[in-house]
Design goal:
The complex is a heterodimer. Chain A has no helices and ten strands. By secondary structure, chain A is mainly β. In chain A, a hairpin with a 7-residue loop joins strand 8 and strand 9. By secondary structure, chain B is mainly beta. Chain B is built from no helices and eleven strands. In chain B, a hairpin with a 6-residue loop joins strand 4 and strand 5. Chain B is globular. Chain B starts with a strand and ends with a strand. Classes of the chains: A mainly beta, B mainly beta. At the A-B interface, strand 4, strand 5, strand 8 and strand 9 of A face strand 5, strand 9 and strand 10 of B.
């Protein structure tokens, strides 16, 4: 596609449920990132994928969070046993392998009741 | 050392005025300093970026000033327009393992009043 695509755009769930957020990066981009943006806050790095290398998971806040990237393209961020503090906008970004800019999707807004 | 501190948190400017947003960092290993602009309901988009070997970069009404010794950089928006109203994030890249790990500031919400 023309840009980074994320789905769903909005997700409301109950505390304790699992959620999956999907990211479809720009075609040909080898790097993929997940960031979290809480209300009025900055962008918190969660995880990074680069090609076939092991992902950098250093930003994942707890073991309830996991992510995978299949076939070097689409990525899924999974949050298990959601908590209210997980409510945020989850942003995905992709970039080419060089030191270029990150292209962000419009985000998935997660609300945990 | 991984933090980027951004100020102010919010800013109100009259149309035609100058908007100034400041950022500071500690890690001297940062090698690339972009600014991202985010409109409501949208993802951030790259606005302008600078490397530490230059002190200033200008693109249209947007200028980055970079002070390497002070470990500070700022965004100046000249002749601010209502359409510039958005949230601005400074960032710094930590080149670790050869990839773009961008550390973002907390953001500045800019409102330009007509």
């Amino acid at each position: 596609g023309a840009g980074v695509s994320q789905s769903p755009s909005n997700k409301v769930t109950e505390k304790g449920k699992d959620v999956e957020l999907r990211c479809d990066p720009i075609s040909g981009h080898t790097a993929l990132y997940w960031y979290r943006q809480s209300l009025g806050q900055g962008l918190e790095f969660l995880i990074y994928f680069q090609g076939n290398s092991a992902p950098d998971k250093s930003g994942l806040p707890s073991d309830r969070f996991s992510a995978e990237r299949t076939g070097g393209s689409v990525s899924t961020l999974t949050i298990q046993r959601t908590q209210q503090e997980d409510s945020a906008v989850y942003l995905c970004a992709s970039s080419s392998s060089g030191p270029g800019e990150l292209f962000f999707g419009e985000g998935s807004r997660l609300t945990v009741l | 050392q991984q933090q980027v501190k951004q100020s102010p948190q919010s800013l109100i400017v009259q149309k035609g005025g100058i908007s100034i947003i400041n950022c500071a960092y500690e890690n001297t290993a940062f090698d690339y300093f972009p600014w991202y602009q985010q409109f409501p309901g949208k993802g951030p988009a790259l606005l302008i970026a600078i490397r530490p070997d230059v002190s200033e970069k200008k693109e249209g009404r947007f200028t980055i000033s970079f002070n390497k010794s002070a470990k500070q950089f700022s965004l100046h928006i000249m002749d601010s327009q209502p359409g510039d109203s958005a949230t601005y994030f400074c960032a710094a890249r930590h080149l670790s393992g050869g990839y773009n790990k961008l550390i973002f500031g907390a953001g500045t919400r800019l409102a330009v009043h007509p």
